[in-house]
Amino acid sequence: xxxxxxxxxxxxxxxxxxxxxxxxxxIFRLGSQVPTPGVHVANVQQCIADLESGGIYSMINLFSxxxxxxxxxxxxxxxxxxxxxxxxxxxxxxxxxxxxLKKEGQAGQTKITQYTRYLTLGLAVLQAxxxxxxxxxxxxxxxxxxxxxxxxxxxxxxVMVITMTAGTVVIMWLGELITERGIGNxxxxxxxxxxxxxxxxTLWDVQTRKGWWTFAVVLAIGFALVA
Length: 227
Fold this sequence. Notes:
The chain is mainly α. Helix content is about 75%, strand content about 0%.
């Protein structure tokens, strides 16, 4: 696999596309680290450190790349888009108008994609509202005794919801850019980048808990699978 990747960089067109994908993924990961306005970053980090041994929180961090629990700009990730796409696929089967659009070819698919974007926006607003409400009430991180927000006012609430919703729209745009100008499916690449983002911290946690010998074995197995 590494050899194929190296060979791809020798082809100018592929190299340009790969570098474009790397740039978009870098922007995506940076946005996943920028806190939403109104978040008490120090308290959030302290609560996550206290609760990181919990299985459910580790799972949430894995599939959100650590963005959701930290209440970042890209906290929602691409899940609203994925959910919207699944809903539209199901509705195509039961709604004749959507089924007719699908049979129209590229023009119909373009309209379905537009509907998916609108539904993504709606779902993002709902999910952002729920997450911010849980953070404000203290139920997002169960057992955390510190306030996660600087201010519990309505203004801060609305700013956070709008920021997270806008973050989802930007993510959707970045994924489409990868699909159009990069290599592969943009959303799949962003999902992959979210999952692997937690690998370095997980590997270091293995070293801390199990020692260098276990760490070396896990690293060797990983390199063997990649090669």
